[in-house]
């Protein structure tokens, strides 16, 4: 495997994606964009993600996913067998609640959050519309490859 993924589940959640699903989802994104990489995905509670969101984004509320690209001098990162991409932090209860509210399968929403977070690690963003116009089609295409629907289309009951 070209990518090393470290999963952290400090709260011992039982219904988070397993490593095989996560690897498949991450590989779908990374394979077309970079050769290799190392990343960590941590599943956390609302308290932890709210603290991180407040500290790093100045937003005192829980969120679904945060990405922290790892910054090393390029010559150091390029010399590693697996360059370190960074960390993705996912709030399990927020993702679970969003999936229910949006009438989505939990696995589909997790796939979206992991793909979304991985793209952030690679420098993609969606704050400005022109950036979202680049990032969102990559998400949609990766999810379609995996058999998931476009997450930006409204789902009707």
Short description:
The chain is built from 6 helices and 4 strands; from the N terminus they run E-H-E-H-E-H-E-H-H-H. The protein is an alpha/beta fold.
Side-by-side strand order of the widest sheet: 1-2-4-3
Overall tally of domains: 1
Can you tell me the CATH topology? Collagenase (Catalytic Domain)
Radius of gyration computed on alpha carbons:
15 Å
* Fraction of residues in β-strands: 15-25%
String of helices and strands: EHEHEHEHHH
Oligomeric composition of the shown chains = single chain
Helix content: 40-55%
The coarse silhouette is globular
Low-confidence stretches: none
Please report the total strand number as a whole number: 4
Termini separation: 40 Å
- Secondary-structure-derived class: alpha/beta
CATH superfamily label: Metalloproteases ("zincins"), catalytic domain
Major sheet summary line: 4 strands, mixed
CATH class call = Alpha Beta
Q: Mean pLDDT across all residues, rounded?
A: 89
Number of helices: 6
CATH architecture: 3-Layer(aba) Sandwich
Write the layout of secondary structure elements.
Elements: E1 3-8, H1 19-30, E2 37-44, H2 46-57, E3 65-69, H3 74-79, E4 84-91, H4 92-101, H5 106-121, H6 129-145
Parallel strand pairs: 1-2, 2-4
Antiparallel strand pairs: 3-4
Helix pairs in contact: 1-5, 4-5, 5-6
